[in-house]
Nucleotide-diphospho-sugar transferase domain-containing protein
Amino acid sequence: YIVYGKEKGYYDGAKFSFLTFLNWKSDEDLIEIVILTEKPEEFIGYPVTVIPMSNKQKTEWSLGNKYHFRIKNRGLAYIMDKLELKEQDKILFFDTDTYFTKSPLPLFNLIQPNQALYYLNEGLIYKRKRFDVYVKHLKSRRVEFDGQFYELTKESAMWGSLMIGIMPNMRSSLEWADKLMIKLFDIVPSHTIEPFSLSEVLLKKYKMVEGKKFVSLYSTSRKKEHAVKILSKFFKKNQSLPVSEQIYLAQKVKLQRPLHIIIKQRLLKVS
């Protein structure tokens, strides 16, 4: 997990995500939960490895606070270097608005030396109207980045990156994706150039699969508004309990919005 910013909801989200993950982990599973964060104090008492993120790093990684989505790429690279990974190790990244109602452990089997993992293939760039900004700015264009060339193709797709699974042999792809991303930042006016750059670079050398069916999420604004309130109450009430009890209680939390909440949110938006 990579957690930064002032909003408490991100930190509660990360904690809830790994608590629901830990429910499915046995003592035999050699899994280490790692948090890169600018607020290490938020995770005191939890069975996680915390790597501090400095304000200087956050500023540099976000291109001087102009594109904070780049922090995911740079943060992943930093974590991989910091952990001194072995060849067979696997990195499974999650956004903080994820949680698990079924075992996520099969996701590790989907990550292989020749195969990376993303959350979802959202569709071909040329086939989906909402990705037209890429066609408009990249069609018939060769983008040079550090001696390499990139061209948008009919096979180019948008992959949702709330979950990314890679192995140490793919570490260099993060660097090439970053170089491409920086070029696209000045060409394509879209906040999705970070996941797009990484998926396009990975697909040059590796296969890619989806992991959607193993994870739940609350990423839309209304779902998040509802979930943040529930998680805030959960941790105010339970954070002092032993972690084993928090794991147990987290499984009982319902983040799906009841019908009356959905209707209320829609009415508020209309009014």
